[in-house]
């Protein structure tokens, strides 16, 4: 287990985390593919539960079929990130991966599927393994499910397709 940062729950740590997120969001918005410590980073846009305004943050993610998983760990801080509360209030969101923006519907991963989802996150971003220990409790994991095709009409970017299966 990695050592818990001394300033983890301080305002200084939170400020640094916001600056990190802004820098990565700016790069993703320009269509760049962003990685941090070896894992991919995406730009998640939610609607603020109090302001009603769009809020965009950088998040690590893992794939589970067509669903994307992200942990509301706030880097191991005691309090969950604001975007988690935003998704609980309004699950409609978009996520930008490189130059591709996808509409999604968020739901919290239930207890039955939590261990599998956490294992997928740890596989792509090992830091998640320490975060629950630092918090003293599990952190929420959000599943970002694709919006049904009929609701995605007019979207300008499509998720990279997988090769069709052969009938032979």
TrEMBL record:
Residues 145-168 are annotated as: Disordered. Residues 155-168 have a biased composition (Low complexity). It catalyses: oxidized coenzyme F420-(gamma-L-Glu)(n) + a quinol + H(+) = reduced coenzyme F420-(gamma-L-Glu)(n) + a quinone. Pfam families: F420H2_quin_red. Signal peptide: none annotated. NCBIfam families: hi_GC_TIGR00026. Belongs to the F420H(2)-dependent quinone reductase family. This is Nitroreductase/quinone reductase family protein. The lineage of its organism: Bacteria, Bacillati, Actinomycetota, Actinomycetes, Micrococcales.
């Amino acid at each position: 287990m990695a050592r818990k940062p001394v300033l983890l729950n301080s305002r200084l740590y939170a400020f640094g985390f916001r600056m990190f997120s802004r820098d990565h969001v700016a790069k993703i918005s320009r269509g760049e593919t962003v990685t941090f410590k070896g894992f991919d980073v995406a730009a998640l846009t939610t609607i603020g539960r109090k302001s009603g305004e769009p809020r965009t943050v950088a998040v690590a993610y893992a794939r589970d079929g067509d669903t994307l998983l992200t942990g509301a760990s706030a880097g191991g801080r005691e309090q969950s990130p604001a975007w988690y509360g935003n998704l609980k209030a309004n699950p409609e969101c978009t996520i930008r991966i490189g130059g591709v923006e996808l509409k999604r519907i968020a739901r919290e991963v239930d207890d039955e599927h939590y261990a599998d989802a956490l294992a997928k996150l740890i596989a792509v971003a090992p830091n998640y393994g320490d975060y629950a220990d630092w918090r003293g409790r599990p952190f929420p994991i959000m599943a970002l499910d694709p919006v049904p095709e009929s609701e995605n009409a007019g979207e300008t970017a499509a998720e990279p397709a997988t090769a069709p299966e052969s009938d032979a």
